[in-house]
Amino acid sequence: MPPPPPRDVLGLARDHEARLLPWLVAFAGLLAALALAGAIAVDAFATRWERGATAHLTVQVPEPDAPAAAPATGEARVGQRQAGQGQEGQTRLAAVLAALRGIPGVALAEPIPRARLLALLEPWLGGEGSTLAQGLPGVIEVTAGRTMPAIAELRAAVEAAAPGAVVEGHGVWVRRLLDLAASLRAIALLAAAAALLVCAGLVVFAVRASIAAHREDLAIVHGLGASDGWLARRFARRFGVLGLWGGVLALALAVPALLALALLAAPFASEPASVAAAGSADSLARLRAAALLLPPSIWAVLALLPAAIGLVSAVTASITARLWLRRLP
Amino acid sequence: MPPASLPLAAGAVVVSRAPLARPGKVWNSQGMVRLDDIGLRYGRGPEVLHGISFSLPEGSFHWLTGPSGAGKTSLIRLLSLTERPSRGTISLFGRNPDGVGRNARQALRRQIGVVYQDFRLLGHLTAFDNVALPLRLAGEREAAIAANTAELLAWVGLAERMAARPVTLSGGEQQRLAIARAVVAGPRLIVADEPTGDLDERQAERLLGLLVSLHRNGTTLLVATHNERLIERFPAPRLALSHGRLVAQDG
Ligand SMILES: Nc1ncnc2c1ncn2[C@@H]1O[C@H](COP(=O)(O)OP(=O)(O)OP(=O)(O)O)[C@@H](O)[C@H]1O
Ligand SMILES: [Mg+2]
Fold this sequence. Notes:
The structure holds 2 protein chains of 2 kinds. Chain A is of the alpha+beta class. Chain A contains 12 helices and 4 strands, in the order αβααβααβαβαααααα. Chain A has 2 domains: 12-50 and 178-325, no CATH class; 63-164, no CATH class. In chain B, the strands form 2 sheets. In chain B, strands 5-6-7-3-8-9 form a 6-stranded mixed beta sheet, with helices on both faces. In chain B, strand 8 and strand 9 form a beta hairpin. In chain B, helix 1 crosses helix 7 (201-216), helix 4 crosses helix 5 (142-155) and helix 4 (127-137) packs parallel to helix 6. Classes of the chains: A alpha+beta, B alpha/beta. The A-B interface holds A 2-3, 5-6, 9, 11, 14, 217, 220-230, 326, 329 and B 80-84, 102-103, 106-112, 114, 120-126, 128-129, 132-134, 136-137, 142, 145-146, 149-150, 162-163, 181. Magnesium ion (MG) is lined by residues 72-73, 117, 193 of chain B. The site of adenosine-5'-triphosphate has 12 residues of chain B, from helix 2.
């Protein structure tokens, strides 16, 4: 019975040096994994901030008790008609309240009672008797429902009901945080791309070393009529598998690292369940809570990482081999 | 010709001990191999082949002779596409191997069986896998590969050494392996460089008989040798080289 066909015509699997490659790739892959996880986490947190910040607005109405002026412009009239409650003799605060409540997407619009406002501000303004307290604006807390009203729409309606009223959307802070998050995410993605480039660079060096070791055999098989593509596929297969192993090792390193980070972050989580679990003595429950704290897409991306690194390695090996093979006659 | 018929055809030749050259035969006038004013230099060194022109008709058999250093191996390296000529043009099967793309050049190569003077076997593969390689490169099915390779290895007397690595084989065994690898895929052209240098007379005749039987089945054959007894035994026209020039072309 003849022996089974060799899958490894060039004897590439016999290079012992190449066995180091998965470990080197694993460290670069770990960096890629952490950077990707960072990018996803920043993304998820930014979305949470954005939602939380825009869900709560405050509207300040100067001179809340003054009578609301009759709407002057057609635009404003439309706004009032939408509110449905524009009435003569109304205070400015009431007019704004009515306008806000008429906007779809606004779940709740409640004035903060003047007494509570004064209590809150007492350290700065002094008590009820202080002159400063006389000029206090009326403050309305607005909670958005599931569908967020456009802030411009709110502004238009509020301005129409009581000129000079201000919608305080925490917008500046949210914008700054979102800008920060966007640049963090860009940096993390760049770092992940750089780590993958390092993987590819490691493969280039390993393939070159392998070619040098098999120069004679390559020339022989080329002489027998093997096409560049056929020879390059031997390298792609061999180094694709080594890269895949590197990716699996990277995953094995990245998962505990991310869980450890999540464990550290759990006590600061906004979900009460996570905070409770973080304090529990059951370490398994703590781990599970920590894992749940991370956005699920992190696990999906991490699961794809070994295959992605394997693919990058295979393609890099193929290109490196093809470039070298062009020297053969 | 399908590879399966190789060993049987070869065996038939050995049984029939008739003279193989057919003087007076009219060759196909269209050269399957044509060299036109070929010169070769290695790197920046001196020219080692000068103005070589000849053509080998389809299905012909020629000896390539000349003293050591005359340029036989260099000429075979040109014909096996291992070197590119530094001047002149080559035509193989009607195509210019230096004017086609890389894949087409490799496809031409797969139609040329080469027995190298230094064998050029793959050291980490078994004897079986060395011989099977051209069939695998040709994309043959594994079942057909197994049958043909085993039969051919048996025919060259290596049935017992199928799983052996080339380094564990004697010089003569390696040479037989190299010949088996050159012929296994049924090439259109076979060029052999001293293919019997390490064989005893009986083996030399037997292996040359294999090559000549392929020629009789239509393969074009060029064999370089110093062995005048073998040339006598298998008379055929001769290309004689001296100092890198073609000095005689009889037949
Ligand atoms: N790779 C090479 N680089 C430079 N010069 C070479 C090379 N190979 C051969 N030569 C030179 O080319 C000339 C012809 O050599 P070649 O090997 O073709 O001769 P040959 O007829 O095959 O000799 P032999 O019968 O000893 O095998 C010689 O002068 C040799 O030194
Ligand atoms: Mg020679």
